[in-house]
Design goal:
Elements lengths: L9 H18 L3 E4 L2 E4 L6 H14 L1 H27 L9 H8 L3 H28 L5 H25 L5 H21 L1 H15 L21
Antiparallel strand pairs: 1-2
Helix pairs in contact: 1-2, 1-3, 2-3, 2-5, 2-6, 2-7, 2-8, 3-5, 5-6, 6-7
């Protein structure tokens, strides 16, 4: 029976991916304006999650990337549950920052639901498209795969999150502005950092001795209910 390969950097990338996801979720509670763009604060860091996702799928394949996506999903869910529990527990008499805590870290069902659904749909779209494009391009034109998958994934993520989280809460003009600004900024970061993505992919493929092509792979995002990987 063949033993599974042991990767030196996979766990590090997964930890960084989850850290980026959780920090972005907290930072998204603030809406800010930078130059001509209006977006939530999480947008500053969140594009890195798609870059990590691209690298993970390109090097380690869809099945390993799927594990990372689910790990991030459950960590985000755990964070939301813990923050909700802390919010609901009675504050100490001498602690006067309950209102401040609720305004920044408080459990807001719409935000949490929006974040989880958008993350799930966007990340899996990104991973599946990149994986399929790698097979079609026979491993060539990495920039086509990373940018193309991000354009779709970030688009799905941004629209779902903003519509669920802010529709009816923010003026429609501001909502449209946030969606457009988020999308342009996120995709712009992906394009700008493409040379770094190339270097990271090349480094990992060499050091890990792996370059996975997802032939005969099921792209079902719910592998727990099916025996086929």
């Amino acid at each position: 029976m063949d033993s599974k390969p042991v990767f030196r950097y996979f766990d590090i990338l997964m930890a960084l991916f989850v850290a980026v996801l959780l920090i972005s979720n907290i930072a998204s509670t603030k809406i800010l304006t930078l130059w001509k763009f209006t977006f939530d604060g999480g947008t500053i860091l969140f594009p890195l999650s798609y870059i990590f996702g691209d690298i993970l799928t390109e090097v380690y394949g869809y099945r390993n990337s799927r594990k990372v996506i689910w790990t991030g999903f459950f960590c985000a869910l755990l964070m939301s549950v813990v923050l909700w529990a802390v919010q609901m527990l009675p504050p100490a008499a001498e602690w006067t920052s309950q209102a401040a805590f609720e305004s920044i870290l408080g459990f807001i069902p719409r935000i949490v639901i929006a974040s989880l659904i958008a993350y799930f749909a966007g990340e899996f779209s990104n991973a599946i498209i990149l994986s399929k494009l790698k097979i079609k391009t026979k491993g060539k034109y990495l920039w086509v795969r990373t940018i193309g998958s991000t354009l779709v994934g970030e688009g799905i993520d941004t629209v779902i999150f903003c519509m669920i989280a802010f529709y009816g809460v923010l003026p429609n003009s501001l909502l449209v502005s946030i969606i457009i600004s988020n999308y342009i900024f996120k995709c712009g970061v992906e394009i700008f950092l493409t040379p770094i993505t190339y270097k990271a992919v090349g480094f990992l493929k060499k050091k890990e001795g792996v370059d996975v092509y997802d032939h005969n792979t099921s792209y079902n995002p719910f592998p727990f209910f099916f025996k086929k990987p």
